[in-house]
Model the fold of this input.
Amino acid sequence: MRVLGIDPGLTRCGLGVVEGTVGRPLSLVDVGVVRTSADLEVPQRLVTIEAGIEAWIEEHRPDAVAVERVFARSDVSTVMGTAQASGIAMVVAARRGLPVALHTPSEVKAAVTGSGRADKKQVGAMVTRILRLDAMPKPADAADALALAITHVWRGSAGTRLEQAAAREALLRRAPVARGARPGTGSLPAGAIQSRLPGRTR
Done:
């Protein structure tokens, strides 16, 4: 089972792909961060995040996507950016027919370290140990993304195949044909612009 973990954020969106099954050693496939500049308008930053996640899904072909569940905090601007990036991640996954799971920070910490109150350094250390890495993934957003993927493999692998089939069936049933496109071709109507990144941003 291959899982893409996403630690959503407007400035840094952590991405980590892990492969394995319950009861067997997990392996790192890839890890990185999509970065956006604070000088850009929010819509442009979200387009960059969307394109980055899309590129990772295209390259690594995960079976499921795990996203950190967003909670309200005193810093409203930060939580808004996190929620916006989280929404983009879920939309990209749903568009690909991939099942999406939301895990709270405490769930991830408990799954990886055994304590729901672990700090980021402890999470990073355990991710390094679980995946048998030579060094701790940096920045913390990257390690958190891997922790999300690990959590989902351990907690959600049993139902992922059924969820995946249901998600793809729903995608085929509900996806509208773009106006001006030829049915069944997936072609965009004339004049439409589709943004993509040329590669990953680390």
Remarks:
- The chain is about 45% helix and 15% strand.
- Confidence is low (pLDDT under 50) at residues 177-202.
- Strands lie at 2-7, 12-19, 27-35, 64-68, 100-103.
